[in-house]
Amino acid sequence: MASPREDQLAQGVWPALRRRGVSRREFLKFCSVMAGALALPHTYADRIVQALEAATRPAVVWLEFQDCAGNTESALRASHPSITDMILDLLSWNYHETIMAPAGTAAEKSLQDTIAQQKGQYLAIVEGSIPLADGGVYCTIGGRTAIDIAQETCGNALATIAVGTCAAFGGIPAAAGGITGAVSIGQAVPGLKLINLSACPMNGANLAATIVHYLTFKELPATDNLGRPLFAHGDRIHDNCPRRAHYDAGQFVQEWGDQGHQLGWCLYKMGCKGPATNYNCPRVQWNDGTNWPIGVGHGCVGCAQPQFWDAMTPFYRQLPTVPGFGVEVTAQDVGIGVAAAVGALTVGHAVVAGVRNARTARATNQATAASGNATIAVPTNETQTTEGQS
Amino acid sequence: MKIAIDPVTRIEGHLRIEVEVQDGIVSNAWSSGTMFRGIEMILRDRDPRDAWVFAQRICGVCTTVHALASVRAVENALGIVIPDNARLIRNLIAGALNVQDHIVHFYHLHALDWVDITLALKADPVATSTLAQSISNYPKSSATYFKGVQDKLTAFVNTGQLGIFANGYWGHPAYVLPPEANLMAVAHYLEALDFQRDFIRIHAILGGKNPHPQSYLVGGMATAINPNDMSTLNADRLSLIAQLIQRGQDFVDQVYLPDVLAIASFYKDWGAIGQGLGNYMAYGDYGTDTQELADTYYLPNGLLTNRDLTSVADVSQDQVAEFIAHSWYTYQEGDNAGLHPYKGETNPKYTGPTPPFDFLNTDSKYSWLKSPRYNGQAVEVGPLARMLIAYVRGKDYVKTEVDGVLKALNVGPAALFSTLGRVAARAIEAKLMSRKLSEWLTALESNMARGDYVIHDNTLWDPSTWKGEAQGWGHHEAPRG
Question: pTM (2 decimals)?
Fold first, then answer.
């Protein structure tokens, strides 16, 4: 005979949402938005509806290590209206220092209960890097080191979601000058079933989408070779940037506040790292689709990329480029050049990104050659670039 | 007997409190920051124009504040005066954070210390409606509305999966609110969750995103302005900001302030608890000119000592020093020295117990946090300090609000030096800042109407224009202090 608890779990997510006063219409809209966020065909919305109607509320524990709680805040800003309520009801959010009611031993009980009672069934979300130097003394919680807690909690989880570039790739504590031996959760606890939602912070909409994907398809979304979900990191910012036409036309902001800046021209010369960054910023945007950094007039800092604090700085230095005779070639060369620079730190990424960009460049060249449009008119002085300003 | 509380939850950061208890009374206490990243060390030898991006990551809850202080420090070193539009945009970002953060602090962090959500299940929705309508004209106040919230809460509790509310201190006698006040507060906890997400879109409009807006520049802002372009700050985006500001003012006036007064009226004993150090300091901020002259600050600087409200001293940054006698660092000239941040050192050296441990060595070094002092004294900063100093400085707009709250609660000024005083100060400041947002937006609009779209001073952007060595300081206070 099923226990009352199992009965409750079997009731599914949709009944739980309905109890919370969510209308059927809002629920269907949510599923449709999620299908969009996951870059799935519209017909998948129906599958999400079916899955959420049947799904149970899996437990989640959210661990914070060397963090700033920026990803916690980003989760609270999940971009679709009422998504926070949705997440609170889609999952059983059992442990999260920044927002949970209990403290001290009572808080730790919530974590330990989840590990003990739902071993192998809960999701672990990790925010912040994990310091391994000097016995882990640079981050302790309840007298235990971050690595100790991570090994127990993530090691017993069904899957681990790294939120933010610190948890995904080491982030700012792992930048040059740091002495704490900070590493990502993937490096700290090898062998986990893991997905990396990088960016500083990650966009809360992508966390919501990842969770819904998991609930719908019973598996984590497909990832790139850095463990990042393809729906969020499959495309370069540069390729989806609304200012891309200005790049192609050689229309660049030259000084902050100049005429080009006031007309929304390309920020490449102001150091924008969009050509070297894979993220869905331009498509999903931030804070309920309100805006994004390039949209406000500041360059991308490449925060979704590994080691961006070192590989993408100085932030205002123009990305290296090879002057070419066609802007498309130049754009692709930019990608290759930067991939190679980052490759000093992440070899695997450099190879794959380079191959992909080279392939795209070839395809583009063939396409432009076939259309007999190989010489795209661009002001020469705009495409000839020199080393950055600093 | 010693007790350790770790983690201290519903804060940003990793905080541990160890307390010594004798006969049920706390006789001594130590606070420890248990995490170190070393951002000071990571910042060395970087391009100073990049520093704000790094510094901002110190905190993702009070996001922007370390960015602003950092960018001001570089501008101070270089002698840059930012354009008026940049000043106004920075004020709008900082002020919006202030309003949003105080509301999040009250409802999502602090309220669970005052509000027993399980008691809300026992409330009478009709009586709750009567209570709500007696303190506010907020439209969502019908018995049907509160019944709906209560039904949702009941269903949630009945699932047995309490999530972040599991293992709370429900039923503790220190919770004294009647069921109806608990239900009203739970309803507003949920309302505020939606509110904070919506309101902070002001940051996305002006800063590209929140958390961690990305539009600061040494020398101004990158927030492009042009009323005749779709990709810049134009009339459409300005009107969205105006709408959000209005929503903020409504929420503060109709929900936050009335709730604070209603809840405080049941916890007046907390007007005598949590007196703290008795020294209060504020750097001041929000000048009316781009020179950032202290005598133009909307919230003035000052130092009050020993709860003396009859005199206030000016504050100077050169009196600030950081101590490490009880922190896991060393100083070249000895660990008892105090160093001004210009001469600051960050040499981490852990000497605490080997983890896992039960207690720290509180007799020696026990924290990753340094101890900042003003003129050798520990001082309290934050909303209470800011409101007290503005009060003593004779700022009528602060005095009116503070006196109004004291009168509403029927308590004297001494009650300000307390936990209750801090809660009230946050709400008062949120109200004041929500009004200033409108003024700053109007000023920005009138600059634009005159054709002033200047957002950045480019003259010293290129590092080759900088002369030799320079040092500078910048200041900005996080909403919570």
Answer: 0.89
